[in-house]
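Submission sheet (multi-component)
Chains listed below:
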Amino acid sequence: MTGGVTVGGVLDLLGALLVLLGCFLCFAAALGILRLPDVVSRMHAATKPQTLGLILLAAGVALSLRSWASFGTLVLIAALQLATAPVSAHLVGRTVYRTDLLRHDLLARDDLATDLKAAGFQLGPAPEDEDDRPGDDARLS
Amino acid sequence: MSAVHTAVLVMVGLGAVLLVVAATLTIARMARGPSSLDRVVAADVLVAVVIATLAAEAIVNDHATTLPVMLVLSLLGFAGAVSIARFVAERDLAVRRREPDRPDRGQQ
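Outcome: structure written.
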């Protein structure tokens, strides 16, 4: 038993390797968070450990623990994170755009600007001489 | 068996070093970040780092006690990001400048 390669040992090694990959994704995301110039590009870096990294970690823990109860919990963790990460990223990106925090000189193209202009919206402070429409109702929400 | 255990310890220890560096860089961005949205994104990554730490600890000690904590943390990051994004959106700059050509969708 000491010299032979057991299935459990191989699974343990595989699980530890997956956890190591997930940790590396966390490290890469932190590097991007610190180095990238923009909130949107920092979000781009931040989504890697939230989705792929978490799936790798969950698979690693599942391979290492090898019980159905922990497998169910880990599947739940990965599924919830996959469902909620796009929502929060969408809201943060939307707020970034509308508070004018992103650097427009770094964008290759800005489809939302043309769409907003076609719909009659524009980034900028509220105009003073407004027509019959009151200011608060005119804001996007 | 023992060699496998040593290899697992070495790999998870290497991952733990990466996680320490990642948490330090993320906290640096949280302290520096010019806007609160930078801090929200950095806090999300910090939550992911904490989840990874719990996973590494669960592998080393071979228990499933911290799995519910990972579950709660993965939901917590979502709630924090959404609420702070909505809070910041109170002062957004997108204003309707002229009446659109299309019929209005009614008040919100």
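Remark: Residues 129-133 of chain A have pLDDT under 50 and may be disordered.
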